[in-house]
């Protein structure tokens, strides 16, 4: 991303988190619009990809483009669906965690196209052998087949998926695709029998009529004109300019064998059967009984071997009740007969579709041998599911679709918030809560047991007595009246009432309000296919149908689950699947309803931005910090801006970033350093840095140019040298004397350098040097060195010393000032204390700090500021009463402080010596000249960090040689001419007491913590 930040004014920001005004929806939409106008359809919100449908082919999906995104970090390159694909793939490989990409958006926003692009990316870029390539092919080819049977032209999308799809692609440990599996959700079966104006039935019907050859149509008893079929005329839109049914038919026919299909004939029989069924008409007899008026249709149905003639004729027009032992046959009325026919058509098509998906799954399934050798595999799931739908008339299907979107939104909120929170936790940064709308209340309203809409609907379907859609609505009103997200005409206030019909209920979804008409809810939920019709289907000659309609189902007295409950349960399973994976999001937006390129309808986009929850997503992302990047990436990009980090930083990454931002003058409130990332709060900070980098670029270019010239000259020189070497060696080879000279040289090898052995000895030297060059130690701690032949022992020793010095110099150059200071102090401590004082070894591994006073600040000491401070205990020279003090060291003197009061000042020039014991105690004495009346006498002190303190003091005072380490006792001056003594003895615990003869007795345990 950074690479194009400079172009941000022209095309907005590539990541919404960098929008200065991130709370403004207008700014958000303006950014989308500006980018869309430049054909930049992708923009990030952090790691979420927002995609706007361009409605035209863009040149951004080529193989070269795929290569550009391969293995490149998300942020290094402009946003793209390939970046998400690649990132997900790499996350799966490196973290060994299953991933999923959730693609959402309303119908026509580009979800299916996005999922196809992701699949194609994997098919092209993943490592593959022949078997895998065949699988990749099957994965890709399953698409046109599924689309033919599951997609249709709607008002919103000429190729609208009328089912939800979740696809798993399984990869082996090498990252090659080895298997796939598809789950399908709620096919919109009602489309088989009815289409709204301007819409079509599923593509396959038109493809068959348009693309099937004459023989095929004759066999199926079909005519080419779709207008002749009742199930194809409702939308009055048999042909669409953007769809080539003929070509698509060819594609599907080609794809079927690839996905292991051998039963096309049976499948097409079913499609034809549905069309014939739709043309079956009924008449009403004198007594209200129904009969089929189109006998020929039934004959056709039989011809295409869908059903048995007699049975169907009887069953479709009659209803058989079981009442006790009596089998009573009652005729269906006209409407009932039509609805039985339609129910049959829907069931046949719906079940065939499910069978088709299973068939595809068999062809994508991991073969046994791969399955068993594939324990280390991982999965990427792709969810392409219907987006939130608000039509003029919304029915049961829209209710289910929108419920699904509520669930996905909930998952989105949970997962994005959760992952955001987790990132803050792992990075050790305090989390700030964000206010967001939690749509759980709406999910509960729909799905809660006993009280939710689905439960009420089920109950109403099962309840004995007269039930109808209106009684369902009343039940809803009784149970849910007063719920803040539920309204009906009766419950509404005047204003809302005016825009609602009496048969509607309104849900206030997170994405907006939708009125659902209850007509058909009960039937669709019941999804009942007359048991007798099921029986007919069980007897079908068509093996696909007999597999779809099982005899056991007819025998089973248990009522199958209602449609909405089935859907709810399958959604629950889907949520479980998604929760177990690491999600990535693609949020698709449709720029206009006219499917036109270049048109950006702001109202439409604003609505989608709102219900996709993008503003909330952005707020969550921006709650803490606008920008975050791993230390290495940040340092790599901005290191030219700081002399200490340019051209290379050799210390710890966090120190490098810290040095860099300090140099750039970042204020503490502007950023935070986590464990592996820097978090920058405001976009402005980043932009300023980016501008500075831009300004610096000419200078960097100049440096690079100079280095390049140097490199070129060096390369030229090497070339010339090599040529000269060849000129020297070739004649030897040519004259064939090499071997003889070599042997001769070996014989004379112990002689002085002479013509006989010169070639051999040169060779020995040369070989050693060559070997040495390859095996030089890489670090100062590496003590290895190739054994030299006797001839070059001396030279080898010189080289060894030189190399070591060289490494040391290089090492020292890399050492940062802070670290250097630390090391110098440690070296001095070692010079003073090593093998002299018992607690020195414990101090070696601990860093020397600049203060031991915790968060306390130093008091003002004029004229110099303290460089070091530590808490000490001072013992009165007379009586040895202990008193807490602070010892502060400046560059020229030390002071002993009691809270804010300076009690004693010790000028370094006057310091006569520093005494410590050889044991592991913290006592030390600062000796002052007794004749100097300005200075007080010696100070007897104790400190827990005695090694550190004395080292620093000795260094600052320039009195390293003045430190005395006394094994048994220390003598000190109490006053002029009067001496005190501290005795040190070993004991079980640390104690400072008054000893004999007025001595101070310090008992020191063998081990001590300094
Ligand atoms: N990235 C894209 N590039 C070009 N055209 C696209 C792109 N995404 C979508 N479209 C166009 O929009 C139409 C609808 O997209 P589709 O993926 O079927 O929508 P959805 O699945 O969201 O309903 C496609 O048929 C195609 O014409
Ligand atoms: Mg789709």
TrEMBL record:
Record flagged with keyword Repeat: yes
Domain of life from the UniProt record: Eukaryota
Domain TH1: 821-1006
Entry similarity comment: Belongs to the TRAFAC class myosin-kinesin ATPase superfamily. Myosin family.
Region (Actin-binding) residue spans: 571-593
Name listed for the protein in its UniProt record: Myosin Ic, paralog a
Entry-linked InterPro entries: Kinesin_motor_dom_sf, Myosin_head_motor_dom-like, Myosin_TH1, MYSc_Myo1, P-loop_NTPase
UniProt subcellular location: Cytoplasm, Cell cortex
Domain Myosin motor: 12-694
Keyword presence, Signal: no
Gene3D superfamilies registered for this protein in UniProt: 1.10.10.820, 1.20.5.4820, 1.20.58.530, Kinesin motor domain, Myosin VI head, motor domain, U50 subdomain
Gene Ontology terms, MF aspect: actin filament binding; ATP binding; microfilament motor activity
Gene Ontology biological process terms from the UniProt entry: actin filament organization; actin filament-based movement; endocytosis
GO CC annotations on file: cell cortex; microvillus; myosin complex; plasma membrane
Binding site for ATP: 105-112
